[in-house]
Give the backbone structure.
Amino acid sequence: MLDFSNAPENTWNFEVTEEVFPIRDKTDHGMKALIREDTGEILKVVPQTYTVLPHDDAVNAAYDAVKEADISKDVTIDIQCIDSGRKLKGTILFNDVHIEPVRGDHVGLEFNFFNSLDASWAYAQELKGLRLVCTNGMVSPEAIAATWARHTGEINVAAAVKKIAQGMDAFNKKKDVWASWTNIKVERNDCEEFFKATVAKRSSKENNTERFNQKQLELLLGQLDTEFQTLGRNKWALYNCLTHWSSHTDHLKTPAIAQRSREVKVAAAMTNTRWSAFA
C-alpha cells in the first residue's frame, strides 16, 4: 500500500463559510458569498444553489483512488493552492511507470486532479503522459483518461479507480501510436498554418485585427525547429512542440492557470482536421 506521509504540507484544508446576500452593504438576492474563514476574503459570489466541494475532499479522494488502483509503488506528489485558494491543482507522478515509444525517449504517467471554490474549474481527474526529456517534464496535453464532475459534495472514488485502470491500459497502447508518428513527415509551412488556425489563433473576444497571436506563433515555430533538430521533421516532433508550449509556463504570472488553459487549447487543436491531415 502506498504511503502518502511524504505529501506536501497541507495548505488547502481551510474552512469556507457561506453568507447569503445582502451582506457588507451589498444586495444581490439569490446569491451567496463564499468566504475564506482564516483570511476573511470573499472568494466568489455564486448562486445559492451552488455546492462547495472542499479542496481537502478532492485531495483525499485522489489519494484514495490512487491507493486502490494500485498501479505504482513509488509516487511523487505536488499540490498547488492557487489564487488565494480559489483553485487547486494536484499531481501524482508514478515514478515506476513509463513507456519508451522511441528508443531513449521515455514517457512517464501522472495523475492530475483539479478543483475550484470559485466555479472557474470543474472538479476533474486526468491521466496524462509525461515526457521525461527535461527537468520539469513535458506533460501530454491530451488526457489518456479523464473524469469531470459537477460540485455535488461527493466524489465517486470507485469510478476514479476504474478510470485509472482503464487509463493504464490506454497508456500502454499509446506507445505504438506515438512511435508511428515518428514515421509521419511534416512540413514547417504546414505546421505554421496549423498553429495559426489553432493554438496561436486569437479568440473572437480579443480586440485585435490580427487573426493569430504573432508572439505565440514565433515561440511555437522556434520550439518546432528545436524539436526538428532532435526528433526529425515528423509528427512526433510537432506533438512535442505543442507539449513543450503547454507545459512550460513558469515565466508567466499564474503558471498553473496558464498551463491548464494551454492544455485545453492543445487538446482542442488535436481534434482539428488539420491535425488529422498530418498522416
In short: The chain has seven helices and nine strands. The helical segments are 55-69, 157-181, 188-197, 214-231, 235-247, 255-269, 273-276.
